[in-house]
Amino acid sequence: MNIYQQIVNKKLHNITADELMKYSGEYNISLTPDQAKKVSALLKSKKVNVFNTSERIQLMKEVAKITGHETAKKVNQLFLEFTK
């Protein structure tokens, strides 16, 4: 894993609910404060490499349980942009 991947994964593992709310506004992703707290807790509890397709897909399934399918789909698209 290169340094860029390490930085991105570390940021995701340490992201706060407030940061998620800020990013959701910037990227037009529907997210409630309660969902942001739950997703933040999920990201902190799971050490997922978002550059690994199978790990990212599994994470998105768990995010979808919290936020709904459409929101998880938008989040996955955002991850894909960052992982290119």
UniProtKB/TrEMBL annotation:
Top-rank taxon: Bacteria
InterPro entries: DUF2624 (IPR020277)
Pfam families according to UniProt: DUF2624
Protein name: DUF2624 domain-containing protein
Organism placement in taxonomy: Bacteria, Bacillati, Bacillota, Bacilli, Bacillales
